[in-house]
Design goal:
Blueprint (H helix, E strand, L loop, with lengths): L8 H9 L7 E6 L3 E6 L7 E6 L5 E6 L13
């Protein structure tokens, strides 16, 4: 899987509209309907959010706290 990237200006606006601070998030994956973002926090305590582009709201919110073992996190 590719590494998460810094959000573009348009992505930052979408993240801010969802009520999140764009400076604290990285873009994990993007398609026509959703923007998948992951926080910049400590690897073992990261959160994943999926923002619906049409509504501008958070569609899915996941926490992967404690799921990482030996520096390997599932799905990151």
């Amino acid at each position: 899987m590719k590494q998460p990237k810094k959000p573009t200006l348009a992505q930052k606006k979408l993240i801010a509209d969802a009520g999140l601070d764009p400076e604290k998030w990285l873009v994990r994956y993007e398609d026509n309907r959703y923007l998948h973002i992951i926080d910049r926090g400590v690897l073992e305590q990261r959160e994943v959010h999926i923002i619906d582009r049409q509504t501008g709201e958070i569609a899915v919110q996941q926490s992967i706290r404690g799921a990482c073992k030996n520096g390997k996190c599932p799905g990151i």
